[in-house]
Amino acid sequence: MKNTRNYGVTKVVRPIKSTMMTASVLALALAAGAAMAQETAPAPAEDDVTEVVVTGFRGSLKSALNVKRNSAGTVDSILSEDVAKFPDSNLAESMQRIPGVTLSRGDGGEGRNISVRGLGPGYTRVRLNGMEGAAQTGSSDIYGAGNSGRSFDFNVFPSEIFSALSTRKTASADVEEGSLGATVDLRSPRPFDYREDQVLSFTAKGVYNEVSKSTDPRLSLLASKKFADGKFGILGTLTYQDRNIREVGYSAVDILPSNINGFNAVRRDAAGLPVTTPPLTEVQPFCTPIGWVSPTGGATISPDPSVHGAKGATATNCSTNNPRTGTIAAYNTIYNLRRADAAAVPGSGAFFPRIPRYVNSEQDAKRTGGSLTFQWRPDSDTEVSLDMLYSKYEVERRDNYIAMLSLARNIGNNGQPMVSVKDVEFDDNGSLVYGLFDGMDIRSEGLVDQFTSEFKQANLNFRRRFTERFEVSGMVGVSESVWDGPMRLQTFVDIIDADNVSIDFRGGGTTPVLDFGVDVSDPANFLYAPGGSDGTVTGGFSVQGKPANNTTKITTINLDTKYELNADVTFKVGAQYRENDFNAYNLNLIPSQVAVKALPAGVTLASITTQITGVDELWGGGAPSSWLAVDSAKWRDVFDFDSFQYCGVECGAGKSQIKETVKSVYFMTEFNTDSLLPIPVRGDVGIRTVFTDQFAVGHIPVPVPGGLPYPTRGLRNEVERSYSYTLPSANVVFEITPDLLARFSAAKVMSRPELGALTPSSGVTFTTRTGTINNPFLDPIRATTFDAALEWYFRPGALVSVAYFYKDIKTFVQRVNELVPYNELGLPEELLVGNASGAVATDLFNVARFTNTEGGPLKGYELNAQFELDFLPGPFANIGVLGNYTNISSEITYILSPTVTTTNDLTGLSRESASGTIYYEDDKFSVRATGSYRGNYIRGIPASAGSDLQGNDDTFYVDASASYAVSDRLKISLEAQNLTDEQNRLFIDSTREDTLFETRIGRTVTFGMTYKY
Question: How do beta strands 548-564 and 892-897 pair?
C-alpha cells in the first residue's frame, strides 16, 4: 500500500497576526493579574456584604465565569446581558468568543453552524431546554446545499428567544451521549429568572447592509408576569426579522486538468497502444487544449472529421460554424504540462477552472419565533415548568451566474474539445494565469431556491425534593423540525461559440478578470430552444431534486434521581428514552415534462428576461456592467410551470427514513472532599450504557421492463440493526488554592454517523459492476478523550487559563471506493433477478460507499484570558478585555483507493483560531469590539483529479457594538458587523490553492432601541 502525507495548508500572515493579537491579550492579562493580585483588598466581613446585581455585558461575563468555575467539567457559557438581550444577533456568532469554537458561515455571511476543538458540526450535539434538537436549512451548493444530517443550523432561530447558551466540552455520565466535540445547551427565559413580578421589554432595530443596500426590520418582545403570590408565572417572547441579503463574487465550481473533458490525451499506434511522441511542430490550427485520437499512429486533426463529421468537424472547423484558430505554441504549452502521478498523460498538469463565472446571489429571508413558558414553584422543594418553542425561517434565494461553460463539457455536447486556444500561460504549479479562447460557449444561469424551516417543541419539566437528601427530576418532551423545499428551479440561456474569450489572473489577485468576448446584456446574442441533434445545448431548465421535504420528530423522556449520602458524596441514577424519527423525500418531474420546449409563438427572449446589474460596482474584477438573465417568474408563467406534474418512488425519486430508538441508563457519583484531603477535591465519576435500535428505509432506483409508465421505479429496502456501548467518564477539580483550580477529565464518547450515510439506498450498474451505495451498517464514531486545565481566578470577574485536550478517534466515516461482493452491500437480492448482465450475489462490485476507517489522534491546547481594568484611574477602570487562542493538530488516515492512503488534518479543523474583545461599560454607556480569526481548514478529501483537497481560506472578522441608556427604561444601540469587509474564499489543492469560490457580503450596520417596563 502506498502512503502519502499532506501537511494541510499553512499560511503565515494571518496566523501570526492572530497569535500576536491573542498573545498580547494574554500577556496583558498575566501582567494585570499579577498587579491586581497584589492590590486585592481583604475580603469584607460577612456582615458587611451587600447584594449587588450586575447587568450589562460585564455582568453577563461575570455570571458566565461563575458557571465555569463551579462546574465539575469544562463548561463555557454566554448569558443574556439584560432582559431579552442576547449579546449578539446570531447565536453561532456569539459562540466565537468561547475558546476552541469556530464558526462556519452560510449565505450572506451569517453564522450557520460551529466546530468545537476541530470537530465539525456533525460531531456537536445541541439541546434546547434540555432536549436534543434538530434544525436544518438550505444554502447555496458551494456551502453544501441543504443540511439533511445531524448538524445543527443555528440561523434557524432568532437569538432573542434564548437567555443562555453553554458549551460542555467534557463528558459526564448524566449528560446523554452523541457528541465528540461538545454538547451545546440553549435555554429560553422563564418567569422566575427575573426578580420583578412583571417584566415587559420591546426592541426595534433596523439592519442595513452595504451590498444589498437594504434596511430591514428586526423586532422582539418579551413579557413576563407572576401570579398567586409569586408561585406561578407566565413568560412569552415574540420576534420577527426580515432580511434582504446580497452576495457578489466569483466561482470556478471546480478546477480540472485539461485532459479530463477530452476524448483522448494519448497518441496511439496502429494497434491502439499508447506511444510517446514529441509535441507537434507542424503549422496547423487545433481546437482542443488536450490530446487527440490517432488510430494509425500519425498526427491527425482533432476533432477527427471522419469520426465527428456529424458535429461539423472539418479540416478547418472544430464544429459547425466554429473555425479552428488555436495556435501550436498554446497547444504545446498545455501538452508539456504533466503531473508526476500522470506523467504519460499530456495536459494532466495544466489546470483550468471548470466553469469560471461571476456570481450574484440575492436572498429574501423572514425569521419569526417565540417562546411560551408556564412555571409553578409552590415552595423551594417543588418546581414544574412547561416550555414551548417555535421558529420559522422562510427563504427565497435567487442565484445568477454569467459563465464560460465549454470547459465543463466534453465531446458529447460540443464542449472543451471544440474550443480553440489562441494564447495560454500557467504558473510553476500548473495553475492557469491567462487564456484566450475561440469557440467558447457562454451561459447565463439562474437558480431560484425556496425553502422553509419550521421548528416546534414542547417539554414538561419537574423537580421534587422529597427529603433533605432525596430528589427526583425529569422531563417529557416532543419536537418537530420540518425543512420543506417546494422549488429549486434552474433556467438558462446560452451563447454558442463566442470568440476572444479570456480568463486573466495576471492582475495578481485570487480571482480572475473574465472577458466573454460578446455583449452578454443583449438578448439577441442568446438562445433558448431545444438542443440540436449534434449535441449543442441552447438553453433550458432543470428541477434540481425538488419538491423535497425533511421531517425530524424527536420524543424524549428523562428520569433522574439524586441522593445526598452526606455533605461530601451524592449519588445520581437516571434513565432516558429518546426516539429520533427522520423522514425525507423528493419528487421528480414526470418524464414527458423534462424536455426543453421552444418559446411559444409571440414570446421573445427579451420578454422573459431581466438584467443583473451592480456586480461590477460591488465586486469589480472586470464583471460586466450588466448581463441578461431569465426572469424566473416570467418563465414559469410562459411555460405554465405551476401545472407541471411530479412523481415519487414510483418513478425512481428518493424516499428514506432513519428511526433511532435510544435507551440509556447511568450511574454517577458526585464528590466534594473539602474536609478529607489537604486540598479540596470535587468532581464526578460515572458510567452510561446506551442501547440503540436503528430502522432504516431507502428506495433503490430499478429499471422497469418496457419503461411504462416510467422507465424506473423505487424498490423499498429496509435494514434493522442494534448496538450498544458503555461510556465511562470522570471529571476531577483540584482547588489548589481558593483561586487556582486544576481540572482533569477523561471519557469514552460517541457520535452517530450522518443520517444520509445510513440510508439504505444506492445506484448500481450491473453491466459494469459499479455503484454508489450508502451504508446502514456504519458504526458510530467513537473516541477516548482526555482533558487537563489550569485556571487562575485572580480577581472577581477575572480568569487566566490554559487547557490541553487529546482525543483518540477510534473510528471515522469516509466514502471510499472498494471491491465488495454484492451480497455484502445490504441491497435486496431481488435486484439480481432478471438483470441482463447475469450478475450473481457473490460477484464483486466496484462501489463508492461510506465505511468506517481507523481515524487517528487529535490534540491541542487553549489559552484564555478575561479581566477588568478596574485598578486603573477614572474612566479607564470601566475597560475590560477577554481573549482566547486555540491550537489543534490531528492525524486522520484517509483512504483514497484500495491501495492508496493519505494522512491529513480532520476535515473542518482549523489549526489556529483566536478571538479577542475589548469593551468599555459604565452606568450609561457600553461599547465593545471583537475580532475573530479562523485559520484555513480542509473542506473535503479527496478532491478532483490532480488535487489533494478542497479547503477554506483563513478569515478575520471584526464586529463592534455600542449602546446608551437614555433612561432606566430606554436604551439606544448601534452595532456593526464585518467592519473590515472580509471575504470568504474556498480553494482547491494545498499547493496550487486555486480559487473555487470567493464572494463579498459587505458590512452590516444595525441601529435600534429597547424600551423596558
Answer: unpaired
Residue 752's CB is within 10 A of a number of other CB atoms, namely 25
Q: How far is CA 785 from CA 181, 692, 741, 788, 804, in A?
A: 10, 22, 20, 10, 11
Question: Cα-flanking dihedrals φ and ψ of residue 416, to 5°?
Answer: -55, -40
Neighbour count for residue 483 (Cβ, 10 Å) = 26
Closest to 641 in 3D by CA, of 868, 790, 450, 896? 450
Q: 756 is written with which cell numbers? A: 444520509
SS3 content of the chain, % helix, strand, coil (to 5): 15, 50, 35
Question: Sign of the CA dihedral 948, 949, 950, 954?
Answer: negative
Distance in angstroms (rounded) separating the CA atoms of residues 982 and 987: 16
DSSP, res 837: T
Alpha helices in 609-765 (DSSP H): 615-619, 632-638, 755-758
Give the separation between CA 293 and CA 282, rounded to whole angstroms: 17
Alpha carbons 273 and 294: distance in angstroms, whole number: 10
Q: What is the largest CA-CA distance in the chain?
A: 104
DSSP β-ladder status, 548-564 and 994-1000: unpaired
Name the residue among 803, 758, 753, 755 with its Cα closest to residue 781. 753
Per-residue pLDDT tens digits for 264-281: 333 333 443 434 444 444
Sign of the CA dihedral with 290 first, then 296, 300, and 304 last: negative
Closest-CA residue to 135 (of 507, 445, 479): 479
Q: What is the 3-state secondary structure (H, E, C) of 959-992?
A: EEEEEEECCCCEEEEEEEECCCCCEEEEEECCCC
Contact 291, 265 (CB under 8 A): yes
Residues composing the chain: 1013
Q: What is the mean pLDDT of the chain?
A: 86
Cα–Cα distance measured from residue 190 to residue 476, given in angstroms and rounded to the nearest whole number: 17
The span from the first CA to the last CA of the chain, in angstroms, equals 71
pLDDT score of 287: 57
Residue 593 phi, psi dihedral angles, 5° rounding: -105, 5
> Residue 503 pairs with which residues in a beta bridge?
435, 514
Question: Does an H or E element contain 572, and which?
Answer: strand 569-586
Whether 966 and 972 have beta carbons less than 8 Å apart is answered as yes
Given a contact cutoff of 8 angstroms between Cβ atoms, the answer to whether 858 and 907 are in contact is: no
| pTM for this prediction | 0.88
Cα 599 to Cα 49: distance, rounded to the nearest angstrom: 82
Which distant-in-sequence residues (6+ apart) come within 8 Å of 38 by Cβ?
A: none
Report d(CA 235, CA 532) in Å as an integer.
65
Report the alpha-carbon distance of residue 6 to residue 9 in Å, rounded: 9
What b/e readout covers 602-630, taking b as 16+ CB neighbours within 10 angstroms? eeebeebbeebebbbebbebbbbebbbbb
Bridge partners for 110 per DSSP: none
Place of cell 487537563: 788
The amino acid occupying position 333 is: T
Q: DSSP secondary structure string, 27-76?
A: HHHHHHHHHHHHHPPPPPPGGG-------HHHHHHHHHHHHHHH-SS-EE
Give the C-alpha separation, 466 to 470, whole Å: 6
DSSP-based three-state secondary structure for 769: coil
Buried b (16+ CB within 10 A) or exposed e, 575-593: ebebbbbbbbbbbbbeeee
pLDDT of residue 277: 44
- Whole-number pLDDT of residue 748: 96
Which pLDDT score, from 0 to 100, does residue 91 have?
Answer: 84
Residues of the chain with pLDDT under 70: 1-55, 138-149, 262-301, 675, 834-836
Do 398 and 301 touch, CB atoms closer than 8 A? no
